[in-house]
Amino acid sequence: MEDLSGWKLSFSIAYRCTDFIAIYKKFLRYPSDREYVISFSIPIPDNTQAPYGMPPAVDGRIGYFHPGRSNSSHLLNPEYDQYDNLDQYILAAVIKAIDLGFTKGFTCYGKKIKFQDL
């Protein structure tokens, strides 16, 4: 984006019980705060998916499951096995999400915003 015209760009990262890293295709817009928000969902593994995963609760779950939806989000495989601990995984997941989001692009009021070839 060449010019935000005084608007801020923020990232909203939610940790969810889901199957994919999800990068929402559209910006959220908050005119009263003059803010654009890019939203991501990062799945947190349970201890059967990764050695550093969360143990399940008494009911055997780690939360209410929210499936990834390709019609509203760009989806990435979390690749839990590539990381040694939860901190490494979360940092890498956020970096991959930001990169994919700007590579594929976001839509904001009909305008496509994405990386440009130099």
How does this structure look, described?
This protein is an alpha+beta fold. A hairpin with a 4-residue loop joins strand 3 (28-30) and strand 4. The chain contains one helix and seven strands. The strands form two sheets. Strands 1, 2, 3, 4 and 5 form a five-stranded mixed β-sheet that branches.
Briefly characterize the structure:
The chain is an alpha+beta fold.
List the helices and strands and how they pair.
Layout: E1 8-16, E2 21-24, E3 28-30, E4 35-43, E5 73-76, H1 86-104, E6 106-108, E7 111-113
Parallel strand pairs: 1-4
Antiparallel strand pairs: 2-4, 2-5, 3-4, 6-7
Would you list the SSEs in sequence order as H and E? EEEEEHEE
Give unreliable regions as ranges: none
Number of DSSP E strands: 7
* First and last CA, distance: 14 Å
Mean pLDDT: 87
Number of DSSP helices?
Answer: 1
Q: So what's the overall shape?
A: elongated
Structural class: alpha+beta
What is the strand content?
A: 25-35%
Cα-atom radius of gyration: 16 Å
Helicity level: 10-25%
How many domains is the backbone divided into? Answer: 1
Features:
30% strand, five-stranded mixed β-sheet, alpha+beta, elongated, Imm9, 118 residues, 7 strands, two-stranded antiparallel sheet, 1 helix
